[in-house]
Amino acid sequence: MEDKKKIKSDYGADSITVLEGLDPVRKRPGMYIGSTSSAGLHHLIWEVVDNCIDEAMAGYADEVSVRLLNNGIVEVADNGRGIPVERHKVTGLSALETVLTKLHAGGKFGGGGYKISGGLHGVGVSVVNALSEYLKAEIHRDGKIWEQEYKIGKPLKNIKAVGTTKKTGTIISFKADQSIFTETEFDWGKILDRLRQQTYLTKGITINISDERPKHSPKKYKFYFEGGIKSYIKSLHRQKNVKHDTVFYIEKEINECKIEVALQYNDEYNETTLPFANNIYNVDGGTHLIGFKTALTRTLNSYARSKNILKEKDENLTGEDVREGLTAIVSVKLPDPQFEGQTKGKLGNAEMKTYVEQIFGESFSMFLEENPKEAESIIGKCFLSAQARLAARTARASILRKGALEGMTLPGKLADCSSNKAAECELYIVEGDSAGGSAKQGRDRRFQAILPLRGKILNVERARLDKMLVNNEIKNLVIALGTNIGDQIDIEKLRYSRIIIMTDADVDGSHIRTLLLTLFFRYFNPLVTNGNIYIAQPPLYQIKKGSSSKYAYTEEEKNKIIKELGGDVKEEETAEETEESREGTEEETKNKKSKKSADKDEEKKSKKLFIQRYKGLGEMNPEQLWETTMNPASRIVKQVTVEDAGKADIVFDMLMGDDVSKRKNFIQTHAKNVSNLDI
């Protein structure tokens, strides 16, 4: 009891740490930008650009420029009003310094600065300042050029006028703090994709991007799309066959909220619906997406009934039926968006469901009446989907029995783990029985399950659900996961928190991995967005010198290890030689072991290096497979994520779809960039 009292008395006011100003951001950067990896690094650019877009949405700017400069500096400029520079009566600082050094300070709270903005929380540019080793703000306003510099969030000097100008606008230049971020190299392609998307979503704005880094070839782009999200739909359908030529589009305001919807159907089986609120992509949807889906299903059913296409005895088309082959963008702009968290993954404003449902429903109904040919193509597509759904229902009923989904009748090939706690369990999907045998022997049976695949699974990009469920390998995988599949997936029933794809490091292994990723992206998408899918990284080489042995996962790592170990490369053990060493009689095996033992001392003294190139997982014995690829303490696994659903959809369609010419063109364009290619 005395010890407890002593512990309690030590906990007083002095134990409470107060982080002032921008200190909380530097202490816990992940709370504000998601991570300190590449995604968080690029988030700095998005935060500054979002402020420029806010000026454009408010009608004060029509041009934004982003420049990647020398030494990791990024410059973002707009031709808006310019951040105010006069003294702020509450803080006693200039308005500029207040915005850059105080969290939750900006023109987005009181209603006087912006009616509509993406940066709801008002922490964007101050967070960028906090996480930058250097930041410079240049303001063009009231005929003067104002300037102020910062270091790690602290002003180096007071704001001052350094010249005169006839322009207005804001220029923010910053360099990310290398002590905060694990990655400091900006990805040109990622920036290009994001800013192209923002240009589509803000009709009438021009965005300029230039790469002026010395180590990169100079590049410049200018984006301007008069059609806005209507142009976005056409862009997403560049490599697809559309069912109707006319893109449906509606733009309307209601109670200070702006609703924009564009859609078009293609001849594929997958849906791509991208919801945005104040130009922010809502990965988890929200009320605006619910309103859109409700109105779409109701309107198409009403039209089919009114034209007697759906008879009185017929069932209504379902949401799944009317969204097959749909590409749609739902973009809303509203004064007071209620998001879930700083990442803004889901919109929560209840009124947006009503607004979108009403405006889109009325407009789409009119579109169908005025465009009978387009309406016929859309309804025909929906009816084909309904027929496939009924066939899939029968297929599901035959294999996805209640007992199977609850784990009572698991596939015979599945070597399950002993734990029944999904949070600690992982499933290895392994290529072939040979690798499956090594994995089963080398695994930790407590929490690691193994499911070997026989050959290559069906390419689901070219098949509907009813055809897929006939495939035994897919059937076994669905039962093993326990989640069901497609629109009936229930992630709460997932039996393993990590699903790890483990294939050979060759062309066939890459193909099998791509087929599995296509399956997960198209029919188990919640597992991808939830971060449950991983790719194992087996080593390419084993490098031995004497009794020491090291593994290399890349060519560069192999060369580094060779340099570290020193000596000369004696020979490369081929896959065939390795296999032969495992065959033969028991007596031959004993003789080999005896010879190795006799030569052991001599080998230790040798400067020769022995290199084995692993062509397949089956070449590794269980101990090696555990040590290199399956041991959580030493393995390397890559988590599969999707940053841009629209772009991912295009890539899967191109690589796995029916159009060979698109795939051939892609291969010819990127062939020179492929590394570790075995022919």
TrEMBL record:
Binds two Mg(2+) per subunit. The magnesium ions form salt bridges with both the protein and the DNA. Can also accept other divalent metal cations, such as Mn(2+) or Ca(2+). It comes from the Bacteria. Keywords: ATP-binding, Cytoplasm, DNA-binding, Isomerase, Magnesium, Metal-binding, Nucleotide-binding, Topoisomerase. Residues 570-580 have a biased composition (Acidic residues). The record marks K456, N459 as: Interaction with DNA. PROSITE patterns: TOPOISOMERASE_II (PS00177), TOPRIM (PS50880). CDD domains: HATPase_GyrB-like, TopoII_Trans_DNA_gyrase, TOPRIM_TopoIIA_GyrB. Residues 564-604 are annotated as: Disordered. The keyword ATP-binding applies. HAMAP family: GyrB. Heterotetramer, composed of two GyrA and two GyrB chains. In the heterotetramer, GyrA contains the active site tyrosine that forms a transient covalent intermediate with DNA, while GyrB binds cofactors and catalyzes ATP hydrolysis. A type II topoisomerase that negatively supercoils closed circular double-stranded (ds) DNA in an ATP-dependent manner to modulate DNA topology and maintain chromosomes in an underwound state. Negative supercoiling favors strand separation, and DNA replication, transcription, recombination and repair, all of which involve strand separation. Also able to catalyze the interconversion of other topological isomers of dsDNA rings, including catenanes and knotted rings. Type II topoisomerases break and join 2 DNA strands simultaneously in an ATP-dependent manner. This is DNA gyrase subunit B. It comes from Candidatus Falkowbacteria bacterium HGW-Falkowbacteria-1. The gene is gyrB.
